Amino acid sequence: MKILVCIKHVPDMESRFRVNEAGNWYDERDLAFRLNEYDEFAVEQAVRVKEQLGGAADITILSIGPDRVIEAVKKGLAMGGDRGVHIKDDLVYQKDPWQVASVIAAFARDKNFDLVFTGMQSQDRGSAQIGAAAAELLDYACITTLVSFEISGDVVTARRELEGGMRGAVRFKLPAVVTCQLGLNTPRYPTLPNIMKAKQKELLTFPIADFLNVESLAETEKMYPPERKGRGLVLEGDVNELADKLASILKEKAPALR
Amino acid sequence: MYLELNEEQKLIQETARQFALAELEPVAARLDQTGDQEIFWSNLKKLAELGFMGLNIREEYGGTQAGMVAFSVAITEIARACASTAVTVSVNNLVCDVIQAVGSEAQKKAYIPKICSGEYKAGSFALTEPGAGSDPAAMTTSAALDGDTWVLNGIKRFITSAPYAGVFVVWGVTDKSAPKGKGISCFLVEAGTKGLIVGREEEKMGQHASATTEVMFEDCRIPKEALLGKINDGLKTAVVELIGGRVGIGSLSLGVGLAAMDYATRYAQKRVQFDQEIVKFEAIQWMIADSYTELEAARLLLMQAAFRADQGRSFAKEAAMAKMYASEAANRACYTALQMMGGYGYSKEFPVERYTRDVRIASIYEGTNEIQRKIIAKEILKNLQQA
After folding, report:
1. Superfamily for B7-122?
2. Is B282 exposed, middle or buried (0-12, 13-18, 19+ CB in 10 A)?
3. CATH number of B236-386
4. CB-CB: which of B15, B66, B70 is closest to A189?
5. Rounded mean pLDDT of A46-50?
6. Which of B10, B18, B51 shows the shortest C-beta gap to A192?
7. Nearest CA in chain A to B51
8. Residue B172 pLDDT more than 80?
9. Using alpha carbons only, what angle is made at residue B184 by residues B183 and B189, rounded to the nearest 5 degrees?
């Protein structure tokens, strides 16, 4: 079984974000980066499949971006990946999801992966397009927002998270791209010896030009913090007056009371 | 000059931070109040399985071989959540380091993997005695060779983890006629050996989950091969290995100090007095500025000592400076954090009260700060004489 896991290195979401000088992305300086949370579920599930198969699987961990993304790749390797692939691009944030998916597809096309795992979205851009677009380009089945995953032979049964608290049960054959949602699993902590051994695993680096062969379809023109919403309304006065004011506001603003 | 952790060190720090947040922080207050050993041991076991008990230990003995910088950042992250757990991890690492440094191949293979894997909950470092604290050479525990066994007699005091340690590194006098400090040797004693008696637990001010007891040796017989390192060379081993332990205690201090200031600063952002958040008062801002500056200085001193250790350079002076400064900065940070929170800081309902108790010992154990200053001055004067 050949497995590809596509991961992204994203800023810690508790960081204070500032718009960059060009005004089209956030400023990366002073940010701490980590493995995208949803991609952590993807790595974990891939490693569980390998364990289920008694080790008869080969896991490639792929990330696109500047040199710092190697840290995320190494975490994937420490969790159980077999080899890392770094597609180097210092300006990956300027690529649209279509281009990123195309690069993944171009890398994966002749390599006969049976399963491609990725997060259902990145915590920073959050387009949720990469998995689906890459699947289309590879002509693979695509199943998104998985919260359970069981494999037997080349058939997978899984559950998807739907809106409104509903679940969907799906069954599909390999090859497939699956995107992983919160609740699929609890990722393991990489052990310290495995962190140290990760640097001995194979790490291949390619320039993005080797795989980039499409123009962008959409461009981020501007990034900006949303306008601050107005502050809450503070009512003052004596109790009777307040009650009347409140009642009239509720009548006006809350449709259910009309 | 490159002041940045490498990828492995960052991942180790992240793993320690995530584990501490998820597993240690939620139970730290309970461990402090009840000393619940089952939870404490279970967390030690998980930390061992992740590789935190032998950061400097070679892979062949079950260690992580990640180095002193990784050890420092790991201890700091653990201590941000639970100082009792952090000190136990630090001492376990220290015991492994002693055995790796001077042990025979058979000793290394017999004991280090058991501490690293968590098969032993802990290892104990039994140097201090009722009459030999800052002056370990004044110890009176004796070790006499009788045929093919050593016979130990004496009392050790303030021994971390003794009730649940699997193995003890014990120092005793093997040559009473030698000049002071030149007749001391080091031994490995397994828990359960006849004549090794674990005494009552100290009722300490803080770090409650970590047990500290007296250990008595009454005609305790151990095999001849239990001698650790060279005969009569034991004090040197203790002195050299404690250098690394000081990086551990300094890192622990930093973690507790940061935890206290992080908590109090968030509190000050919400607490309103005189119609505004108290963080808007300059008095509070200066506390924040001073404390974080001192903690950052402590971090840099620790990183310098750890970096030198990883480079194979001498780091006795740097480790003493880092331990001394970090433990005092952290004590001041906890004092400040408690002050910022007023009455709530003094209440057991909030963690700053615990941090303040937990951090107090850091200027005392692993060599009092007075001894650290003596080491620092000695190193400086030594170099001046050479010039």
Report:
1. Acyl-CoA dehydrogenase/oxidase, N-terminal domain (1.10.540.10)
2. exposed
3. 1.20.140.10
4. B15
5. 98
6. B51
7. A192
8. yes
9. 145
Phi, psi of A142 (to 5 degrees): -135, 125
Which residue carries 């279509």 as its tokens? Answer: A98
C-beta atoms of A195 and B66 within 8 A: yes
Average of per-residue pLDDT across A183-210: 96
Q: How confident is the model at residue A257 (pLDDT cuts 50, 70, 90)?
A: low
What chain B residue is nearest to A196 in terms of C-alpha separation?
A: B8
The topology under which CATH files domain B124-232 is Butyryl-CoA Dehydrogenase, subunit A; domain 2 (2.40.110)
Tell me the ipTM for this assembly. 0.91
Q: Is B78 on the interface with A (CB under 8 A)?
A: no
Count how many residues are written for chain A.
258
Question: Band of the pLDDT at B353, cuts 50, 70, 90?
Answer: very high
Q: Check B12 against A195: CB less than 8 A apart.
A: yes
Contact check, Cβ <8 Å, B7/A74: yes
Can B366 be counted among the known catalytic residues? yes
State the catalytic residue, choosing from B23, B366, B370, B379: B366
Q: Which of A112, A91, A79, A149 is nearest to A4 (CA)?
A: A112
> Which residues does residue A62 pair with via DSSP β-bridges, in sequence order?
A6, A85
Closest to A236 in 3D by CA, of A249, A245, A247, A223: A245
Beta carbons of A191 and B51 less than 8 Å apart: yes
Cβ of residue B127 closer than 8 Å to a chain A Cβ: no
Structural domains in chain A plus CATH codes: 2-210 (3.40.50.620)
Per-domain residue ranges of chain B: 7-122, 124-232, 236-386
Give chain A's contact residues with B (Cβ, < 8 Å): 34, 70-71, 74-75, 78, 189-196, 198-199
* B274 CB-near residues (< 8 Å, 6+ apart): none
Amino acid occupying residue B220: C
Q: Is there a common fold for B7-122 and B236-386?
A: no
Determine the pLDDT at residue B213.
Answer: 97
